[in-house]
Amino acid sequence: MYQIQKILTAETFPIRKEVLRKGMDLPVAFNGDANSDTFHLGAFFKGQLIGVSSFMKESNRAFNGVQYQLRGMATLQDFRAKGVGKLMLNEAENLLKDMNVAILWCNARVSAVPFY
Predict the structure, then answer these.
(1) I need a surface site. Which of 10, 18, 28, 111 has the fewest CB within 10 A?
(2) Backbone dihedral angles phi then psi of residue 26, each to the nearest 5 degrees
(3) What is the C-alpha separation between 52 and 16, in angstroms, rounded?
(4) Measured on CA atoms in the order 78, 83, 87, 93, is the torsion positive or negative?
(5) Could you read off the pLDDT of 86-104 as tens digits, one per residue?
(6) Nearest Cα to 97, choosing from 74, 73, 71, 68?
(7) Please, are residues 103 and 65 in contact by the beta-carbon 8 Å criterion?
(8) Rounded to 5 degrees, what angle do the CA atoms 26, 49, 104 make?
(9) Distance between CA 20 and CA 26 in Å, rounded?
């Protein structure tokens, strides 16, 4: 039903704008978006991009070892609570395991904490 695949940085921008920056005059590009070790995932439904997530190699003093940070996960309103975010996280975990990365962390809005 849903397909998850790597996408280009710029492909994340419309959904970031709609979901994460709606009504705000803030940039949709993040520091680290274009780094060579950053990857972005898109969730597609019938060929339409409906969700995005970005994964950046980052250090958090709370953890040891190679680690990645999840940033900018967003799903269009009509597709929320349907498992899209979980599918993107599962795919990212598989990719990170293949890269021998054992730590994935994120900062989350209070309203999103139950998801994680």
Answers:
(1) 111
(2) -125, 150
(3) 8
(4) positive
(5) 999 999 999 999 999 999 9
(6) 68
(7) yes
(8) 70
(9) 10
